[in-house]
Amino acid sequence: MNYITGYYTTKFGEIWEKSLFDLVKEAITGVLKQTNLTNKQIDAVFFGNMLAGVLENNLHSPSKISEILKVNIPIFRAEAACASGGAAFNLAKNYLDANRNKNVLVIGAEKMTDYSPEEAITGLSAAASGEEQEAGLTFSGLYAMIANYYLEKYSYSEKNLAYVSVKNHFHGSLNDKAQFRRKITVEDVLKSAYVAYPLKVLDSSPISDGASAVIMTNNPDWVKKQKYKAAVLASEVATDTISLKERKNIDEILATKIAANNAFKNAKIDRTDINVAEVHDCFSIAEILAMEDLGFWKKGEGGENIIEQPTMFGNGGNLIVNTSGGLKAAGHPVGATGIKQIGEIFLQLTGQAEKRQVKNVKYGLAHNVGGSGGTAVVTILGI
Amino acid sequence: MNYITGYYTTKFGEIWEKSLFDLVKEAITGVLKQTNLTNKQIDAVFFGNMLAGVLENNLHSPSKISEILKVNIPIFRAEAACASGGAAFNLAKNYLDANRNKNVLVIGAEKMTDYSPEEAITGLSAAASGEEQEAGLTFSGLYAMIANYYLEKYSYSEKNLAYVSVKNHFHGSLNDKAQFRRKITVEDVLKSAYVAYPLKVLDSSPISDGASAVIMTNNPDWVKKQKYKAAVLASEVATDTISLKERKNIDEILATKIAANNAFKNAKIDRTDINVAEVHDCFSIAEILAMEDLGFWKKGEGGENIIEQPTMFGNGGNLIVNTSGGLKAAGHPVGATGIKQIGEIFLQLTGQAEKRQVKNVKYGLAHNVGGSGGTAVVTILGI
User: How far apart are CA A229 and CA A311, in angstroms?
Assistant: First the structure.
């Protein structure tokens, strides 16, 4: 069995005084300190990053991390758009399953705010198909098409989506690493400017800087001595077409459904066992689809279910979602997101989630998506 | 045990009529046909690519490959500069070691000739440190510094390096997938224009397009039925500083030494057991260092040893090197190189190397380097 034994994340936001690798170094130093590990006790490193090549002509990060960590071990970079962090984590789990008694460091990081919004948006559009890019479809545009289809098909309005952002901003107000700490109302969301109809600024995750890291290990003797630990019960990756037009249904993310089904099968638990989940809310509509495609809610009912806020902290629900603030309020430094999600579940399972600590947490799930659903990674942790 | 059971490569060169994913599709179709596998029999895909993000704003390739292959399985992209192919192969091996009875498809590809040499060189420099980029150091410049140091330290001249290119062009003349099919002489090399003193055009690998793919499997029943198979005895990755100035010695590639030592230890064979090797000759000096750092030749003796061409096909040596033509003559579509090297060893081990078939091949080695030595991957195959 593989265990997570430590997590550190930088603050997410506009961190202009730090470069990409300054953030990576902070995350590495932080997580090693927490776990009392030295650099020489790390056997391999897996790094998730999407945009450093496109934005700052910065590739070959495995070698840069070797320089920072002062080691000559295997180091890998995974890139799967906004699922780069989740993909890196999955590869790290494979490494542990293939090798006994090892400690791996898994890092995700992104540096986005040194560039103009146009540059960042062009970079992000690299995760869409060539045709979609040529048509001028940004990710706001792609998710807007999905949102329009969903709202029309199930007779919902923009207001139904707004509850997602209200919940996640409330959670962000409880997380001192979050980019946005301010609570918002449904009216705030509805009054905010359109980005791509029906999605508005307050339906959308921001452009962010940040780095997150976890230590994962399969050394049973070492695990016994650790104060904080969570078992990795499953980590599953699935893929789908990069082009929205090639999908059979655009009111579901097939890759999420497949990854979730495989993950629950491997973890040998039911949906109802999950107490906390971090789901990929790059836009409000994405959290609604995620709740349905992960199997927590029935298809088409998410727009209705969200109104009573059963997944909001403090409302007494059995499943609390995006306690970190989600991508919406915690921020979305792309490569870091998948690791931060897993880290937040680790904090909840080990009683370290401070003001947002959910009670009696036994199982948690993290859900990371790349592009408009071309990649999905589902990870289940337990204590 | 993991086995390679099939290999396909596109021609390498200036392939203006095909896009990156046209090349990927050709490689996938080719290797599936050779192994009589359908898309549904592939359990995971690992893709090595360096420059698509930088050159053509093309990321999230796992999802694009899902669309091409019409599957929803785990697909990953690895990037480690010029070692992206080798890194993808190593991750694929981890996947097999972690999961029983699986078939994986490993692809490497690069599309470079649609862009100006300046664009390609700027993209390639993304594999160097930020300081090196700011100083205007291209990879020709970095390897020129290494070459000057080596030639001075061991009292060699540019002529010693020239033999590497002469050998590899001769081998390229025997490989109909190679970018350059023309034999050259030592005089041709010495007369060619300087790129970065002491390295000249004919010391340097070209800018190329191409895609290569192998099938690797750990399904023993299926392996038994295969006509062609080679066992993967070891695949090891090591890293080092991205900056040349942070290295203790610049006349050796430490990552190569570490990866090779680990690989020979795991494969349980000696250096003298290797009959064929593909080594990373991005520049002539790189093959000399590789032969020394892999442990085939003593440090400092490579410049002398190469003169008699003991590693040239047809000269009766025990170890023939870069029968594909190497990066120099076969071409260097960056992400494809690490897979082509492994594929060439597979062809030699299974008697499919046609005009360049070495006799009585039992063991072969592939050696893939990223940047100026920040990543090295060493793979050993046997029959």
Answer: 25
